[in-house]
Amino acid sequence: MKFSSNSYGLFRSGDAGFATLLSRLTACLVLAALLFSLAPAPANAQLVPVAPGNRHAEQPEIPAGAFSRTKATKGSFDGKYEKIRDLIARDKRLQKKIKAAAKRYNIHPIHIVGALVGEHTYNVDALDHIQTYVVKAASYLGSGLTFKYDGEKVSDFVQRPEFAACQGLTDSYDLWSCREAVWESDFRGQAVGGKNWPNDRFGRVFFQPLFAGQTFGLGQINPLTALRVNDMVVRTSRFPQLSVKRAPEIYKAIMDPDSTLHYMAAVIRISIDSYAQIAGLDISSNPGITATLYNLGDVRRRAEELKAKSNGEKIVLPKENYYGWLVNDKLDELLPIIQ
Fold first, then answer.
1. Under 8 Å CB-to-CB from 284, ≥6 apart: which residues?
2. How far is it, in rounded angstroms, from Cα 230 to Cα 237?
3. What is the largest CA-CA distance in the chain?
4. Which fold does the domain 48-147+207-338 belong to in CATH?
5. pLDDT band at 3 (very low <50, low <70, confident <90, very high)
6. Is the distance from CB of 123 to CB of 220 less than 8 angstroms?
7. Residues 6+ apart with CB under 8 A from 261
8. Whose CA is closest to 290, among 261, 316, 268, 318?
């Protein structure tokens, strides 16, 4: 904005230029205050903070799959973003549920909002009403779905001797991460036990029955992710324990907004904790980074890789992907609707 040399003219209450300037300054101050509020009291002074904002000047490349999914619905990224943004902005009950879940897991609600925005901008369209998710969740209870591949239930599959090293693990995150690692090393794309196993991810092979797809509900969580974070959700939210033998209950848990938001919060909490414990980084003030990890998964391995790149003199900070970049770029719109 070009300032007038006439200071009286600049500060006249009726001056349109001043009104615009004042509006922009006010918005900047509000955003700064909201960003500051993201930062929790430091639990560990040795953690290196990852400041709010994007490290990439421009949005990283969006994968072809996101384009094809959007094209299939004859939509646009802008339209899908506006739809999920507006759904959250107008639905006070949804806002209340988001805040309640965030409070229980000691995270700022913007982290959940960021994951919702990323999923429904680049993955699927948001439904028009939150009640639609509730109805769909109830429908899964009587579905009779099971987790299996080529007639073998996953509950039987993980009892094979190759999984012996996982048997002593008691935490659900460690247990299912171990099982996925065994799948990758001993089964994926290989012939084992007289059967040729698909060269595909564990979750796609065993946890994608029939027409159901890969991810579900408002939070677009897949069943394997729900099983991973289940122990934290049971401890923190007092929800029932999930069992891989009861697939319909898992689908209901990740479809129903009353529970899926807690699973989302648990996923984000584990990301924040993993980066703190493994890489010595505090990512809790950067919703774009937590959204990126929500999109990519495998947070412990990513934290280990980041730690390996750092040394005593140089700390390598995480970077947002296309999905997290959008979240950080839209914070001035997203933060006010969840305060």
1. 38, 39, 40, 107, 108, 111, 272, 290
2. 10
3. 87
4. Lysozyme (1.10.530)
5. very low
6. yes
7. 97, 98, 100, 101, 112, 218, 219
8. 268
- Whole-prediction pTM: 0.83
Structure tokens belonging to residue 201: 């991810």
Q: Which of 97, 96, 102 is nearest to 40 (CA)?
A: 102
Residue for token digits 């209340």?
96
Which residue carries 């982290």 as its tokens? 111
The amino acid occupying position 79 is G
Is residue 188 a contact partner of residue 227, using CB atoms and an 8 Å limit?
A: no
User: What integer is the mean pLDDT of 11-24?
Assistant: 43
**The token pair that represents 291 in the structure block:** 């959204």
Using DSSP, state whether 263 is helix, strand or coil: helix
pLDDT for the residue 216: 65
Instruction: Collect contacts of 13-16 with beta carbons under 8 A, ≥24 apart.
Output: none
pLDDT in tens, 192-212: 988 999 999 999 899 875 544
pLDDT tens digits, one per residue of 37-90 = 454 444 555 899 999 999 999 999 999 988 988 888 788 999 999 999 999 999
Q: How many Cβ atoms from other residues are within 10 Å of residue 51's Cβ?
A: 11
**pLDDT score at 44:** 56
- Kind of pairing, strands 152-153 and 148-149? antiparallel
In this prediction, residue 82 carries a pLDDT of 94
